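Progress report, Aim 2. The chain analyzed during this reporting quarter is listed below.
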Amino acid sequence: MTIAVTAVQDLDGFVEASNSYGKQRVLDMGCKHTSITKIIMGGEAAGLVGVSFEWESVDAAIAGSNAVNSDSQLMQMMGDCGVSVVRRSVLEILAEFGETRPTSGFGTAVYMSGNISAEGMDTAWGHMQAGANGLQLNRAIANGIAPWTGLVVSFADSVDDLLGAAVNAWADTSMQARNSMNDVKPLGRVINEIVA
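Predicted structure tokens for the chain:
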């Protein structure tokens, strides 16, 4: 998965263009799924827009990113909407539970450090499904010079319900032991609204 964190001056125009032709264009380039989320809470990241693209492999992600950046209509649209890329990362999807490709609602992304593995994620989902519709664990492949090595993404209709379930997941003693063994620590969280 590639995630481009962007600043967007005309988000409504960007979403409209994505829905009318942009999303299909990137799917035709080999992308398996794409979505747009607005970061609504998250410190200095608030107001930025995340655009995610799922690919078959890292080679496909590189080829797809090159194809997007070579498409004159997409580049014109991004220019018209005032889209500028702040950072771009590529991640490996390690585990998924429930609905991880929603078209509406909210998501949270918890940035993690340490040795990220899918071990124990079924236990986490056992708690999270009480308040979340989906859960995804990603390991960073190339994220620049940054302290985070993984990203836990959860999707829900209610952020309050999601956070309530997350408290129970973090409090689970087996999860705590596994995180301690792998030196896994949360570094920060952003809350997103899924807009396309």
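The helical segments are 11-28, 58-70, 72-80, 121-128, 159-171, 173-181. The mean pLDDT is 97. These observations will guide the mutagenesis work planned for the next reporting period.
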